[in-house]
């Protein structure tokens, strides 16, 4: 079972500020060097291609070496975050961190997040961080 944290996101001018906030939410739970490696991996992935999927969902992610467990930080934004432009506005941003060697876990988590988002239908806008954490715990278990 991955480490799961759900947070409310503020109004960010762009995805970089949102990512910094979400990565910062991991600071108490992850060693600084590991967090730095994750940040680099997440930004490299975003530079390669946007992690905006559909239906207001963005799943930024990074795979790094030496990560003992999977981490999921889920954020809800009532106004949405441009990911990377206003054409792709994310209301649900789910940051995923997985050890580089655990490819199957990585793919499974991404698949389960997408299925979970589809199960919400149009009701995602009103979900609380607590409801989001519970839903993801059930979906990822």
Task: Note down, in words, how this protein is organized.
The chain is an alpha/beta fold and 141 residues long. The protein has one domain: Mannitol-specific EII, Chain A. The protein is 41% helix and 27% strand. It is built from four helices and six strands; from the N terminus they run βααβββββαα. It has helices at 15-25, 32-48, 103-120, 129-140, and strands spanning 3-8, 52-54, 57-58, 61-64, 71-82, 89-99. Strands 1, 2, 3, 4, 5 and 6 form a six-stranded mixed sheet that branches. A hairpin with a 2-residue loop joins β2 (52-54) and β3 (57-58). α3 (103-120) crosses α4 (129-140). The radius of gyration is 14 Å and the shape is globular. The termini are close together.
Notable traits:
141 residues; alpha/beta; Mannitol-specific EII, Chain A; six-stranded mixed sheet; 6 strands
Brief digest:
The protein contains 4 helices and 6 strands. The chain is an alpha/beta fold and 141 residues long.
**Structural domain count:** 1
End-to-end CA span: 6 Å
- Overall shape: globular
Count of individual helical segments: 4
Using the 3D structure, state the CATH architecture: 3-Layer(aba) Sandwich
Percentage of residues in DSSP E strands: 25-35%
Helix share of residues? 40-55%
- Extract low-pLDDT stretches: none
Q: Please give the number of β-strands.
A: 6
Category from helices, strands and their pairing: alpha/beta
* CATH homologous superfamily classification: Mannitol-specific EII, Chain A
Instruction: Write the H/E string, N to C.
Output: EHHEEEEEHH
Major sheet: size, sense and barrel closure? 6 strands, mixed
Q: CATH fold name, please?
A: Mannitol-specific EII, Chain A
Provide the residue-averaged pLDDT: 92
């Amino acid at each position: 079972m991955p480490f799961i944290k759900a947070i409310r996101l503020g109004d960010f001018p762009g995805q970089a500020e949102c990512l910094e906030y979400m990565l910062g939410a991991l600071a108490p739970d992850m060693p600084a060097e590991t967090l730095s490696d994750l940040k680099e991996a997440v930004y490299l992935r975003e530079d390669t291609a946007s992690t905006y999927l559909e239906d207001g969902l963005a799943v930024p992610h990074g795979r790094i070496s030496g990560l003992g467990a999977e981490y999921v930080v889920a954020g809800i934004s009532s106004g949405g975050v441009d990911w990377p432009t206003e054409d792709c506005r994310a209301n649900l941003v789910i940051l995923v961190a997985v050890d580089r060697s655990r490819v199957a876990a990585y793919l499974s988590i991404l698949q389960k997040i997408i299925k979970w988002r589809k199960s919400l239908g149009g009701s995602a806008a009103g979900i609380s961080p607590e409801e989001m954490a519970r839903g993801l715990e059930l979906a990822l278990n």
